[in-house]
Design brief:
Layout: H1 3-15, H2 18-57, E1 60-65, E2 68-70, E3 73-75, H3 85-94, E4 98-113, E5 116-125, H4 129-132, E6 137-140, H5 145-149, E7 154-157, H6 159-165, E8 176-179, E9 182-190, E10 206-209, H7 210-218, E11 225-230, H8 236-250, E12 261-265, H9 266-309, H10 311-319, H11 324-360, H12 369-395, H13 399-404
Parallel strand pairs: 5-10, 7-9
Antiparallel strand pairs: 1-11, 1-12, 2-3, 4-5, 4-8, 4-11, 6-9, 7-10, 8-9
Helix pairs in contact: 1-11, 2-9, 2-11, 2-12, 3-8, 9-11, 9-12, 11-12
């Protein structure tokens, strides 16, 4: 019997039990739709994290003091004073893989402007910091090197600071705000960046010359950190190693001594978050894949029922010349048609659900072609795998016993 006739017989058999066929497909539909949707959410989150890290500076390197002992008491990294301006100048002048570098000092407190106030922190940096962090001036200008040298009381502010200190929409340029009673003149505003992948508000930011924060706010001579950017993302590892070697020499550390500083790159953060999202994506796909397994078991169950119900039909067909291979092919085609059709419907529902999540709740999604192909392939294999055994049992029935079956 040719394949065309077998498909017609299989379609006729399925059309006689439309509701049962649909309910059998439902497990496959839910499984395929779940796999596509879950993978789309996982991949969308991964790409969103990578994009936000890239916006922060994918080749950025952060150097901070390490935890250590001071006067016999173990101190946290924020209390250590192991980084000096000499370290900054060494990185700036003695490295070949660093494109830009900026010292960093920070202080938390209350910003006040007229009758409005807002708690935040102020970061002391140099002009290169904006390029390292991929920050852009929206209005006004960044402070100059001369203003850094003279410890000028000027600053740049982000949109969150502007909204809270100037709720009436006043232009902040030229206005004076106070931070812990110290006046700062706003000479520029920063373009809005929103929240990053870790939920931090990137617009809650105030930048001032690092010398101003050192001398006028904190009254310290050391620095709390150094930000640098490698020449490119490809040489970030080399730049990190170069900085570590240079700082160990500066701090006169022995081979057996531990670093009194920490060097971290955005690449490390990117790899860590990417690894985490990949694990979550695999977990979600495995959970969704359980639906496919359940759907496959449903196909096997229904095919068993179908073989039992049509035992006399099988016997009659075999008695008039149908071969066991024809019976096997017929029931196998029925199982494949159920899983094939369920796979197509599941793909459409999965893609629809993904776009609904994207535009409905604004969650980043990314439908991968491989997930569609893989889901379709798996559901087809599921139909063959779970449909083969009942079909094999049907093909092995004795025609005489099958005809006598009640």
């Amino acid at each position: 019997m040719n394949i065309g006739n077998l498909i017609k017989i299989s379609l006729r058999a399925l059309s006689n039990n439309k509701m049962r066929a649909f309910l059998t497909m439902l497990g496959i539909i839910i499984g395929v739709a779940s796999v596509i949707t879950m993978l789309a959410i996982g991949q969308g989150s991964k790409k969103s994290i990578q994009a936000q890290i890239s916006e922060m500076g994918s080749n950025m390197i952060m150097i901070q003091p390490g935890a250590g002992m001071m006067g016999g008491v173990r101190q946290s990294s924020s209390d250590m004073q192991s980084l000096k301006l000499e370290d900054y100048y060494s990185i700036l002048n003695k490295t070949k893989y660093i494109a830009a570098c900026s010292p960093s000092v920070n202080s938390s407190g209350q910003f006040i402007c007229g009758g409005n106030n807002y708690p935040s922190s102020i970061s002391g940096v140099n002009p290169e910091y904006l390029g390292i962090r991929k920050l852009t001036v929206d209005q006004g200008n960044i402070f100059t090197r001369q203003q850094v040298a003279s410890s000028a009381k000027v600053c740049l502010v982000g949109k969150t600071i502007i909204k809270n200190l100037f709720p009436n929409g006043d232009n902040p340029l030229g206005k004076v705000i106070r931070f812990n009673k110290i006046p700062f003149t706003i000479i520029g505003t920063l373009k809005e960046k929103g929240y990053n992948s870790m939920g931090m508000d990137q617009d809650n930011i105030v930048l001032a010359p690092y010398t101003t924060i050192q001398k006028r706010v904190l009254a310290i001579t050391y620095i709390q950190g150094i930000f640098a950017s490698a020449l490119s993302e490809d040489v970030t590892t080399k730049a990190t190693s170069e900085i570590e070697t240079l700082l160990r020499e500066n701090h006169k550390l022995k081979t057996t001594d531990q670093n009194d500083f920490n060097v971290r790159s955005q690449q490390e953060l990117s790899n860590m978050l990417t690894s985490t999202t990949d694990m979550m994506t695999i977990l979600l796909a495995c959970i969704a894949g359980i639906s496919l397994l359940v759907g496959g078991i449903g196909i096997m169950n229904i095919m068993y029922v179908s073989v039992t119900e049509r035992t006399r039909e099988i016997g009659l067909r075999m008695s008039i010349g149908a071969k066991g291979s024809d019976i096997l092919s017929q029931f196998l085609i029925e199982a494949i048609l159920i899983s094939f059709t369920g796979g197509i419907i599941g793909i459409l529902i999965g893609m629809g659900a993904s776009f609904l999540i994207k535009f409905g709740i604004k969650w980043p999604i990314s439908i991968q072609p491989y997930s569609v192909f893989l889901s379709f392939l798996v559901c087809t294999i599921t139909g063959v795998f779970f449909g083969w055994y009942p079909a094999k049992k049907a093909s092995e029935l004795d025609p005489i016993e099958a005809i006598r079956y009640e």
